[in-house]
Write a structure and sequence with these properties.
With 240 residues, the protein is an alpha/beta fold. It is 46% helix and 14% strand. A six-stranded mixed beta sheet has the order 3-2-4-1-5-6. The chain starts with a strand and ends in a 15-residue tail after the last helix.
């Protein structure tokens, strides 16, 4: 069997001009991830990430931890199939339409820019609409196309890596949730329930052979709080 570690990127810069950049906390999470992987003895036959800045910054921080430990890594491969769904576009194009008929959505839309809880509620509402909505909006990638792109990206990794290999993919929560739902045979309507709890820099593991793929673990993050002689750090845990 071969293994793929799916890592959600570190915390992005919510509420800033460039959400896609890692925040200071996100960088700390990425470095802690890298130090954990080095100390745990992980050596990767494949390194992958999407093309988003927050994904690349997380991957780069981990690679630097290996360099600091004088350990070589294989080249990083970027695949846009591991990019997150366009949540900002969904909110920009779909939320105003929903707000016209739903005062609750209108209130969330007004508060979402500076309120993470309001943003999360709005994201869930818009995501649910996007999931089952028509696929004819040229401004947004449809759910079927997004899901197919994610499946293609992970299948590319499976084909590129041989038997007994370990690879790591730096990606985003929506991608991880989509893959978990696919592997477990869950309906599309259950994807958000898998998506919402995923912690920044958590690890989800897939096992695969030439004929099948399975889920080994989901949303591991205890290493963030407990690493080496450091005291527990509950403040290092984040969802967005």
């Amino acid at each position: 069997m071969s293994e793929i570690l799916l890592v959600r990127h570190g915390q992005a810069s919510f509420g800033s001009d460039n959400y896609d950049a890692l925040s200071e906390l996100g960088m700390r999470q990425a470095v802690r991830l890298g130090n954990y992987l080095v100390s745990a003895g992980y050596r990767f036959d494949g390194l992958y990430c999407g093309t988003l800045q927050r994904q690349l910054q997380t991957a780069t921080a981990v690679i630097q931890c290996y360099a600091d430990a004088q350990l070589q890594t294989v080249p990083l491969v970027q695949d846009p199939g591991f990019n997150e769904m366009d949540s900002e576009g969904q909110i920009r194009h779909l939320a105003p339409r929903l707000a016209q008929s739903d005062p609750g959505v209108a209130k969330l839309l007004h508060s979402a820019q500076g309120d993470k809880k309001a943003f999360q509620k709005l994201l869930k509402t818009v995501f649910s609409h996007w999931l089952v909505g028509p696929a004819d909006d040229s401004r947004l990638q449809s759910w079927p196309r997004f899901k197919a792109g994610v499946a293609c990206a992970v299948d590319n990794v499976r084909r590129a890596q041989g038997s007994g290999t370990t690879s790591i993919v730096f990606t985003s929560g929506g991608v991880i949730a989509t893959l978990v739902a696919r592997v477990l045979g869950m309906p599309d309507t259950a994807v958000y329930s898998v998506y919402e709890p995923i912690i920044n820099c958590s690890i989800t593991r897939l096992l695969f052979s030439s004929t099948r793929i399975s889920l080994s673990s989901y949303n591991e993050f205890s290493y963030l709080q407990h690493q080496g002689v450091d005291p527990p750090q509950p403040d290092i845990i984040s969802y967005r």
